């Protein structure tokens, strides 16, 4: 079954209807406060929006998001380079999916893990309308994508600050972060659909799928009681393989009869047009994924200009192209 890309936007289940932004209405510069809760303007799930937001937060241009036009026709994946670092879905809150979510969450204790040995980084969502940006964080702060985070950026700061924090404190870290809010709001008007404001409920959610440090496939959604481990990945197994897609949302699509076209998916992979050197493993997680005694790569990313940046000397040995 072909699931075409659709310009869908995220919504929170507990937010009621209000109004859409019209052509004559300007978006607020910051988030709204409704009934004492911070509400972000909702985002569209498209490469244009997420690539812009990822760059503002601090992702190297060596990675970018691509449209996934089908979950079953493998020939439609050929435009996406491999490997795939993460998948970001919008999934309609159908009756089938809602039953599955409620049943699983009722059977689980709330997630309370944190620290350097945590296989994934998960954020609980307490900001209304923010599940798109939180889904993006789940894609960028987990798995190999974290090695493409530029130093001194919002992403690198959130990464290092969130490691020792439990979910409630992590959620508050995002809630209070002005740079995170400004980056989100600055992208709210991008895309092909005018964003809703206030309490519009579109019945859809962003869900990220990533490879954890433990080699398992993880489902990450901020409105759940915690992350969901979906199965062990084989060495080198691609996130767009038929086997992995089946474990992501293939079953939900089949249960809904394949008639709901509000599904959409984008995939994070390398941008083959870019050739940059990266500060691999420059983030501090309290442990090193490198072998002891192996020196870190020198940092020089020509796409990034830190205030203290200066050109590397001739014959600089730290510069290497992206592998």
Spell out the helices and strands N to C. Answer: EEEHEEHHHHHEEEEHE
Count of alpha and pi helical runs: 7
Low-confidence stretches: 1-28, 288-309, 316-323
Question: Helix proportion of residues, in percent?
Answer: 10-25%
What is the spatial order of strands in the main beta sheet?
4-10-5-7-8-9
Largest sheet: 6 strands, antiparallel
Total beta-strand segments: 10
| Estimated radius of gyration | 19 Å
**Structural class estimated from helices and strands:** alpha+beta
Strand coverage percent: 5-15%
The best one-word shape is globular
Distance between the termini: 34 Å
Catalytic activity: Thiol-dependent hydrolysis of ester, thioester, amide, peptide and isopeptide bonds formed by the C-terminal Gly of ubiquitin (a 76-residue protein attached to proteins as an intracellular targeting signal)
Keywords: Hydrolase, Protease, Thiol protease, Ubl conjugation pathway
GO molecular function: cysteine-type deubiquitinase activity
Protein name: Ubiquitin carboxyl-terminal hydrolase
């Amino acid at each position: 079954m072909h699931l075409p890309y659709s310009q869908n936007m995220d919504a929170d289940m507990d937010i009621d209807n209000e109004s859409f932004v019209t052509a004559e209405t300007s978006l607020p510069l910051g988030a709204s406060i409704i009934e004492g809760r911070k509400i972000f303007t909702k985002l569209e799930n498209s490469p244009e929006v997420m690539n812009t937001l990822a760059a503002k937060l601090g992702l190297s241009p060596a990675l970018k998001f691509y449209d996934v036009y089908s979950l079953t026709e493998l020939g439609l994946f050929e435009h996406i380079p491999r490997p795939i670092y993460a998948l970001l879905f919008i999934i309609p809150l159908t009756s089938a999916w809602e039953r599955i979510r409620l049943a699983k969450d009722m059977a689980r204790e709330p997630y309370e893990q944190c620290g350097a040995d945590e296989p994934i980084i998960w954020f609980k969502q307490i900001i209304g309308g923010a599940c798109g940006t939180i889904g993006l964080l789940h894609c960028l702060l987990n798995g190999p994508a974290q090695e493409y985070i530029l130093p001194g950026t919002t992403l690198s700061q959130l990464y290092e600050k969130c490691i020792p924090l439990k979910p409630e404190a992590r959620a508050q870290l995002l809630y209070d972060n002005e740079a995170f809010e400004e980056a989100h709001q600055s992208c709210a008007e991008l895309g092909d659909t005018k964003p809703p404001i206030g309490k519009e409920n579109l019945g859809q959610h962003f869900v990220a799928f990533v490879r954890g440090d433990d080699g398992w496939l993880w489902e990450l959604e901020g409105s759940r009681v915690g992350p969901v481990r979906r199965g062990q990945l084989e060495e080198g197994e691609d996130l767009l393989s038929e086997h992995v897609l089946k474990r992501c949302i293939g079953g939900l699509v089949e249960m809904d009869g394949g008639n709901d076209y509000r599904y959409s998916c984008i995939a994070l992979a390398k941008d083959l047009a870019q050739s940059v050197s990266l500060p691999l493993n420059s983030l501090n997680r309290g442990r090193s994924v490198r072998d002891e005694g192996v020196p870190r790569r020198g940092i020089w990313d020509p796409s990034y200009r830190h205030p203290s940046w200066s050109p590397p000397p001739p014959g600089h040995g730290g510069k290497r192209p992206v592998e």
